[in-house]
Amino acid sequence: MKVLFDQGTPVPLRDYLPNCQVTTAYELGWSTLKNGELLAAAESNDFKIFITTDTNLQYQQNLSHRKIAIVVLSTTSWPRIKSHLSGVLDAIEKATPNAFLEVDIPFIS
Asked: Where are the chain's structural domains?
């Protein structure tokens, strides 16, 4: 499955998705694309899941017509994400076309 990481998505997460073909927006030269353009580019290149840390995405874009699944992580902090990896992996596994899944990652105490 093709997965696209947005700018703020920690790249080490890639190592925990062995059954996915993970690419970053930066690697594709898409780091200057705005959200709507980036989602359109991802869909036209057959990405199935877009993982982002942009918690405002749903308010900035009309997502109702999107085919790509969107998984939003509530932080860019890799230590926090890693400590709640099961929730992140669960959301990715549940992602279906046009799904919008938010993963709330609490602060590490």
From this structure: 2-103
